[in-house]
Amino acid sequence: MGAEGADPGTVRPGGRTARVRASVLRAAGDALAEHGFAHLDLADIARRAEVGKTTVYRRWGTVTSLVADLLLDMAEQSLPRTETGSLLGDLKANARLVQRTLADPRQGALFKAVIAAATCEARTAEALHRFYDIRVKEWAPCVQQAIDRGEVPEGTDVHEVIRAVSAPLYYRLLTSSDRLDEAAADQAAEAAAAAARAGAYLRGDEGRA
Amino acid sequence: MGAEGADPGTVRPGGRTARVRASVLRAAGDALAEHGFAHLDLADIARRAEVGKTTVYRRWGTVTSLVADLLLDMAEQSLPRTETGSLLGDLKANARLVQRTLADPRQGALFKAVIAAATCEARTAEALHRFYDIRVKEWAPCVQQAIDRGEVPEGTDVHEVIRAVSAPLYYRLLTSSDRLDEAAADQAAEAAAAAARAGAYLRGDEGRA
DNA sequence: CGATTAACGAAACTGGAGTCCCATTATGGG
DNA sequence: CCCATAATGGGACTCCAGTTTCGTTAATCG
After folding, report:
1. B191–A64: do the CB atoms touch at under 8 Å?
2. Neighbouring C-beta atoms of residue A15, cutoff 10 Å
């Protein structure tokens, strides 16, 4: 007897268990990108992953909880950051990276699906927020360097500048049918850079005109 | 005999049919705001609307298609626009309106759900895009006025400026756990205004540093 | 390498989402 | 005002997503 509350996969996480997780997460990503978040069933994912559907239901239970785990996995795969020496150059590099990701049919659909899933459950939302916190933190240093160079005023919220680059790209992805091209990426970077230079992202201060 | 392909509700759209639609759309909004897009069933909506579930299935069939109709309805309800005489003032008014809407528990949840639904079906996405096109068009004139006043350079994409105000607010709603407060709204408006003045939204031109 | 038992997987089972049928209601045209 | 029939609504039915059961496989510890 004794406490038998340990979730499956936590006591013997090696070998098969890890293999099953990797296989299921890959299959889940494929399925989300293909069918979207709504018409998705776990049995189909189990089939793709060549895993018993009982296992998928036992370890994840619901689509949203599976997506939460997928986000945990995605957060670990970090993309290399380039440095160009100027704020605009760095922000453009970031914007292009986001734009290429969202414009890619598979990745774009996957991100849409993941965002949709996050609106449906608190745990999944938390995982999504953590994912973006990590990505934002990775790029924030380039804004700090711009502050050090005197390009951007002291006291600027560096994270907010990075978010300002992504925001219009995600907004376009979700609310319009316009194509996400490089011009959109460059425009997002330029707008964020211009606003940052003008002091629009000073923290704790609503800025002056 | 003859063509009997007419969808239910199109031949006799008055009286009861209209009443049923209004009641179902209201119930759908409530349900979406409460349960989110995922765990939503049409039978529950029918119960809330005091309508037979057969009717809901016959006229809308799926959750996404019901959301598409809800968006059509939402698009018709236009909000009054205020004018302040300056670009920053107008953009702040817009930002505050969006912020108040998204920060409201019911409305915020509803918008999240509607966006999630739009990621799952082309027809619903189209309805969502139309909804935002209308909202953006309603506010665009204030940017044109700023151009006429010489506040913003000629050739600026007026719609893009309006989108730039909403984008960071929606981005925050979906990807972070931070509260959507008035400071966020003001910051979004100021950033958009600063970027617009700097010429970041010149159309067909990627701007200069 | 062998024992223990965590984790997996096949198959049978179940509940409720979505469909079908037909009687009832009430719209819109004459 | 009346008729033809569009549209609704209750209830029976179906089918499959999700659960339960139990035998099999393999991870970890000694």
Report:
1. no
2. 8
